[in-house]
């Protein structure tokens, strides 16, 4: 029995439908259903991803895991997500975008439920091994869902990629915001198993829902590879920007709470409220930045560079940096978190459509295969940063200070924005010379006296 509400979209049909939808003010039925599907995926996946923070580390320590091992359990998620994004992005056409998304949701829901049963496992090596296995499988499921989600969104909304992705980031942010307090409340009220069971079942409900509403997309595989994308210096620099952004978020997640508690004598509840200062500006900025950069694509580079510089300034003042000789102030910390959250939206949202543009300029085919590789590349560098940020940031914080760790993170973010700016200026100069030469040749008379 076919549960699809619409017939499969082929590459040609998808392109013609997008072109036809361009002048329309409203969205087609396929686009509306896709938007609902992607929003549900982002929200449910992120809320399940973020529930571990408030209580799992303490439970793991009770089961015989050290703080280092707990960090490795969290870190393996990013590593497996990185590998999964690259492999699944390459073979999205062969696997099928819709099947990949649904299978990813199913795996993630099962792993979330299984995580709720781990407290029944024997303490010690058995518990730790099961944590690594379940967390790794969950990362692969998440990579499948997110990689296919990005590719499907870019395919169904080719002229409004940044707008749609920016709007979907609202649901991503809501999932990240609600996950810790919801998970913590259910944990304190009903015990360890209930948060995972409840949210895992919510994610499981998304499987038949997306089977029904999500359109199928048929496409032909291509011979292009990630190396073809990475031969472009601009793509490499944009990926470096993506890496610095996610590493900054990972650094904040791993170190800010302890710094705020120690420096300002705050409770974990107040730290959670402070973290809203990072998430809410990002959620509010993302759709606005997406809409503006879709309407004026030439501004993508300016937003990425400007946002990167502002993000770097935010990290420099987060501590603040020791060479500023400014003492740590709670009000300054909150303002800088808000600034970083807003500038992250400025920087991150334009990067995905910009890589797509670079891929088409390189000569890669306009289709699901290329979109899958762009999605995989984006997810891989984002995961790489999420792995690097907490580890390196924690090491620097432990051996030096939070202030120096934030300064190093800000310096790396500034370097990425600066290199992208220099490349853009160098790229623009030959284009101007060529345009001036063409205009001169056109204005030169064919016959001279």
Automatic annotation (TrEMBL):
<feature type="transmembrane region" description="Helical">
    <location>
        <begin position="226"/>
        <end position="249"/>
    </location>
</feature>
<feature type="domain" description="Major facilitator superfamily (MFS) profile">
    <location>
        <begin position="34"/>
        <end position="428"/>
    </location>
</feature>
<dbReference type="GO" id="GO:0016020">
    <property type="term" value="C:membrane"/>
</dbReference>
<feature type="transmembrane region" description="Helical">
    <location>
        <begin position="370"/>
        <end position="389"/>
    </location>
</feature>
<dbReference type="GO" id="GO:0022857">
    <property type="term" value="F:transmembrane transporter activity"/>
</dbReference>
<keyword id="KW-0472">Membrane</keyword>
<keyword id="KW-0812">Transmembrane</keyword>
<feature type="transmembrane region" description="Helical">
    <location>
        <begin position="164"/>
        <end position="188"/>
    </location>
</feature>
<feature type="transmembrane region" description="Helical">
    <location>
        <begin position="330"/>
        <end position="349"/>
    </location>
</feature>
<feature type="transmembrane region" description="Helical">
    <location>
        <begin position="72"/>
        <end position="92"/>
    </location>
</feature>
<keyword id="KW-1133">Transmembrane helix</keyword>
<keyword id="KW-0813">Transport</keyword>
<feature type="transmembrane region" description="Helical">
    <location>
        <begin position="99"/>
        <end position="118"/>
    </location>
</feature>
<feature type="transmembrane region" description="Helical">
    <location>
        <begin position="269"/>
        <end position="290"/>
    </location>
</feature>
<dbReference type="Pfam" id="PF07690">
    <property type="entry name" value="MFS_1"/>
</dbReference>
<feature type="transmembrane region" description="Helical">
    <location>
        <begin position="194"/>
        <end position="214"/>
    </location>
</feature>
<dbReference type="InterPro" id="IPR050930">
    <property type="entry name" value="MFS_Vesicular_Transporter"/>
</dbReference>
<dbReference type="InterPro" id="IPR020846">
    <property type="entry name" value="MFS_dom"/>
</dbReference>
<feature type="transmembrane region" description="Helical">
    <location>
        <begin position="302"/>
        <end position="324"/>
    </location>
</feature>
<feature type="compositionally biased region" description="Polar residues">
    <location>
        <begin position="7"/>
        <end position="18"/>
    </location>
</feature>
<dbReference type="InterPro" id="IPR011701">
    <property type="entry name" value="MFS"/>
</dbReference>
<feature type="transmembrane region" description="Helical">
    <location>
        <begin position="401"/>
        <end position="422"/>
    </location>
</feature>
<feature type="region of interest" description="Disordered">
    <location>
        <begin position="1"/>
        <end position="26"/>
    </location>
</feature>
<protein>
    <submittedName>
        <fullName>MFS-type transporter SLC18B1 isoform X1</fullName>
    </submittedName>
</protein>
<feature type="transmembrane region" description="Helical">
    <location>
        <begin position="32"/>
        <end position="52"/>
    </location>
</feature>
<feature type="transmembrane region" description="Helical">
    <location>
        <begin position="124"/>
        <end position="152"/>
    </location>
</feature>
<dbReference type="InterPro" id="IPR036259">
    <property type="entry name" value="MFS_trans_sf"/>
</dbReference>
């Amino acid at each position: 029995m076919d549960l699809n509400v619409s017939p499969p979209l082929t590459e040609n049909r998808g392109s013609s439908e997008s072109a036809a939808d361009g002048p329309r003010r409203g969205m087609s039925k396929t686009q509306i259903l896709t938007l609902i599907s992607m929003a549900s995926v982002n929200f449910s996946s992120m809320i399940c991803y973020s529930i571990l923070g408030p209580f799992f580390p303490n439970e793991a320590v009770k089961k015989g895991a050290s703080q280092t091992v707990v960090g490795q359990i969290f870190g393996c998620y990013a590593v497996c997500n990185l590998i999964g994004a690259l492999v699944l992005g390459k073979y999205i056409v062969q696997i099928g975008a819709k099947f990949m998304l649904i299978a990813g949701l199913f795996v993630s829901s099962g792993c979330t439920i299984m995580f709720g049963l781990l407290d029944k496992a024997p303490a010690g090596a058995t518990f730790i091994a099961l944590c690594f296995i379940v967390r790794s499988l969950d990362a692969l499921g998440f990579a499948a869902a997110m990689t296919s989600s990005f590719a499907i969104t870019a395919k169904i909304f080719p002229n409004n990629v940044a707008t749609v992705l920016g709007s979907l980031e609202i649901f991503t942010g809501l999932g990240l915001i609600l996950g810790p307090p919801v998970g913590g409340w259910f944990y304190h009220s009903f015990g360890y198993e209930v948060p995972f069971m409840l949210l895992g079942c919510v994610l499981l409900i998304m499987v038949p829902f997306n089977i029904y509403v999500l359109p199928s997309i048929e496409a032909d595989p291509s011979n292009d590879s990630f190396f073809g994308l990475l031969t472009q210096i601009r793509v490499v620099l944009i990926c470096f920007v993506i890496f610095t952004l996610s590493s900054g978020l990972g650094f904040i997640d791993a170190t800010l709470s302890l710094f705020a508690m120690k420096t300002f004598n705050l409770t974990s509840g107040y730290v959670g409220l402070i973290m809203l200062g990072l998430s809410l500006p990002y959620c509010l900025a993302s759709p606005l930045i997406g809409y503006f950069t879709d309407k004026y694509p030439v501004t993508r580079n300016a937003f990425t560079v400007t946002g990167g510089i502002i993000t770097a300034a935010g990290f420099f003042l987060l501590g603040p940096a020791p060479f500023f000789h400014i003492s740590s102030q709670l009000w300054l910390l909150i303002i800088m978190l808000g600034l970083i959250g807003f500038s992250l939206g400025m920087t991150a949202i334009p990067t995905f459509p910009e890589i797509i543009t670079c891929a088409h300029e390189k000569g890669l085919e306009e289709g699901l295969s290329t979109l899958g590789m762009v999605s995989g590349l984006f997810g891989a560098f984002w995961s790489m940063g999420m792995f690097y940020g907490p580890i390196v940031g924690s090491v620097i914080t432990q051996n030096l200070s939070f202030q120096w760790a934030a300064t190093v993170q800000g310096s790396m973010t500034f370097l990425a924005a600066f290199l992208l700016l220099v490349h853009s200026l160098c790229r623009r100069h030959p284009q101007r010379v060529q345009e001036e030469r063409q205009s001169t040749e056109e204005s030169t008379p064919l016959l001279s006296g």
